[in-house]
Predict the structure.
Amino acid sequence: MRQIKNRLTILLAFASMLLLVQACTLFGGKKNDTVDDVFKQGSIDPNLVPNNVSYVPLYPFIANVRNPLDVFVGYDDLIYVVVDNDENNIDDNELLIFDQKISLVFRLNIPGATDFTQDRRLHSYVAGRYYADEAKTTNLAAIFHIKGLESGLPVFLDTLKHFGCDESRNNTSFRGADDVAVKFTGLATLWDNTLYVARSGPRNDQTGIARPDNGVLVFNAEGVNIGFTTNLNPNQSSIKSSVGISGLATYAGPPQRLSGISTSRNFFITLSDQNTNLEYRTLSIVSTEDPDQGTIFGENTAFLNFDVTKADRFMYESYRFKKPEDIYVAPDASGYIFVTDSESDSLYIFSNAGFEGVNPPANSKVKKQIVVSFGGNGADGSSSGPFNLVDPSGVCYYNRTVFVCDKGNNRICRYKLNTDLQ
C-alpha cells in the first residue's frame, strides 16, 4: 500500500507540473504575442522599482509630442494632450486624443490652444485664441466649448471670447494691446459642471467697473459668467494672491461616479509670474457663502500649519517654488496634490493638508510623510531619463497614475506609486 501511495504522489506531482507548464504557455509564454502585447501596456521596469516608497515610470510614455502644454484624462477615459507644434504660429497648436493603449485616435487644430478640461457631460473646454478681424492681425483669448470629441465628430457649441465673456466688460470698449495681452491660463470644472477659468493680464486696477485681469472667472454650465474672485489680490504677494495664475485645479475629477464626487467649490492655483516677487506661488483658495456679498473666495490658513512631527517640508514654505506651471488634485481617497515647476524641472507631491510627501505604508516604522518629489538632471547629467524632466508643464492624475507633460523632452510621462503596484 505504501508503494502504491508513493506512486500516486509522484503521478500527481508530474501532472501538476504539466498543468503548470501549460498555464505558463497560456498566460504569458514567450511565443504568445497577444499576451506579450498586453503586458507591454502599463509595464514597470523591475530595475527601476526601489525598495523605498517612490513613484516609478509606467511604460509606455507618450513620445514624439512636440512641446506638450497640458494633459488631461477625461471622464470618457481618453487622454487629451495639448501641443504647441510651432511656438511662432498659433495656428499649429493641436489637441491630440489618445486611448488607454496610448494609440492616437483623433487630432484637432485649435488656434493658440494651451489648456484642456472636461465636465461630467463629456463637454470639453480648450483655452486658446480667436481672430478678432478677418485679416488675422489681432487675436484674443478664448475658451472653445466642444462636445463629441470622444466620438471623433466634434461639435463647437460656443466660444467664450475675451473680453465679452466677462459680464463686467459689457459697457467697456476694446483696450488695444492690453486686451491682446490677456490670456486664459487654466481650466477646471466642478461636480455640477460649473467652469472655472483662470485669467492673467496687465490691467489690475480695482477701482473701476471692469474686474482686474488677474483672477478666476466663474461660468455656469450654459456658459454664462456668474462670478469672479473679487477678493483675491491681483497685484501683490499673499496667500490669496492671483498675480499671474498659470494653473488651476478643483477637487472634482474623473472617473465618472454616481456618488462620492467632491461638491467643494474650493480650488488651487499656481502663480508663475516672474516680474513680481511672490513668496507663495501655490495656493489653496476657499469658497464661502455670505448672505450679503454672495460667494467669497479667500485664503486657506490651514495650510500654514507646519507640523514637523508629520512632515519635513510644506507647500506653504516661503519661496518653495520658482515657476510652478500647473497643479492637479487626486479625486480619490489619497487627495494628493501634484505641482509641476518648470524652473526646477520637477514634480512635487503633497498631502491634502499641504505636507510634502505621501503617506507611509501601514506597516512602516516611518510616521512622517515620505518625500517622493523628483525631476531635474540625473547624476550623469542626463536630462531624458525616466525620472528626469525638462520644463514640465501640465499634470493630471487618473487611476492612481500621474501624467506629466515633459515639455523639453517632447513626451508625456506616466508614473505610479510603487506601493500601488499590487
Observations:
- The first helix runs from residue 2 to 26.
- Residues 45-420 form a domain with the Neuraminidase fold (CATH 2.120.10.30).
- The chain is about 10% helix and 35% strand.
- The chain has a mean pLDDT of 89.
